[in-house]
Amino acid sequence: MNRFTTLCYKELLRFFKVGFQTVGAPVLTTLLYLVIFGNALEGRLEAYPGLRYSAFLVPGLVMMSVLQNAFANSSSSLIQSKITGNIVFVLLSPISYGEFFAAYITASIVRGLVVGLCVLAVGAAFVSLPVHAPWWALAFGLLGAALLGSLGLVAAVVSDKIDQVAAFQNFVILPLTFLSGVFYSIHALPPFWQRLSHANPFFYMVDGFRYGFFGASDFPPAASLAIVFASVLAVSSATLLLLRSGYKLRH
Amino acid sequence: MSLEVEEGEFFGLLGPNGAGKTTLINVIAGLARADAGSARVMGADVRSEYRRARRMLGVVPQELVFDPFFTVRETLRLQSGYYGLRHNDAWIDEVMHHLDLTGKADANMRSLSGGMKRRVLVAQALVHKPPVIVLDEPTAGVDVELRQGLWQFVRRMNADGHSIVLTTHYLEEAETHCGRIAMLKEGRIVALDTTRNLLGSFSGLELRVVTEEGGEQRLRLASYLELEQALARLRRAGVTIREMEVHPPDLEEVFLRLTGRAS
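ok -> structure tokens follow
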């Protein structure tokens, strides 16, 4: 194996070895959301004409799992390695910061997509779901996972303690996900909140991903894709610069 | 500080806590970046040619670090992969054999004792057969049996042509193994010479007596001829000797004198 594939393989092995937690837990959470919100709101909300609320909900939940798990993979792995000190094995080796970045992001994407697929399979078992444009869904899934994997790296690099990563997750990632339109169409919101939602990059990921299933969205999917792509480029570049500087990794 | 270690040397880096031994090693290993100056490993600059420099270097870190997700063999295979090495199992097996790790190959890292974890750290530093091996306090907290085995192995690596750089608190280890020694204090080299010369430069003898009251005194003598006078002085002072020892200078004394902590 070469350096990149080894580090990537290590990251994936780590995630599969605790598969019960890493895949089982988000699947269970999704089921709970589906049962609770799906049943409570079924018939009261109609996001798109003729679409059942629980069907509307599933792609949002899938994308939420993709994003949260992509973030969790890179952030928890790196912060644990930093705290326990075993990051030194990677830092001593000839692995470049580019290979380091690529390996962590690839592993984040794989974890995000694997968990997303499991959640989708469970959701589809309960609700019949159309698939209008799967490649669009995949593109948004990939880019979203890459973006969150990158944010996870940043959070872990700048943090010294697990609490700080958790704070990043709870005060930044979680609100942005919940306010991205996972549970509702932003057209149901008052104009002010609609405008505010457009400032949330997560909205475009969830909305675009949902387009892949229903062929309908709150925002033109091509424009969403461009915005998400630009976000990935910006955040990745910032992360690469951070890693190159050795900030909080090489003292 | 300017320091050069020759190929094939067994070199000791000594100094009190905070002298800068680990910082120096971290700069060489690329774990820290020097504010000024440069470091090279076998001619490769640790910043501009970091890939080549790191391939030449195997570092056994001071802290007992490990990845709790993996077994010993997985750990060593991953470490090989970080250096771009495929099919390294023959060498991994050999290293595990010499470090008495074969029986633990499939054990999770978490389940190993401290001494065993230390051996895995040594094995990890050797997976890519580096010509330069840095051991940062390798025997801290290690039992006597392992310490012997470890030295045997390191000496063999040295005999095979590997350069060894050792930092240690156990001065007798440095005295036994190192051909040349640098003593550090507050980031500066206070002595740099062969072990023999360092010991030789502090000629004379040391007389150590423990008195009846339990106090300890150390007296420096030019030769055995002065011994009688010294004892007579003690007798006149009314000191009753319970224990007495005369020995040539050891590294500890050299170390204490050079770092200004001699009594």
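The mean pLDDT of chain A is 92.
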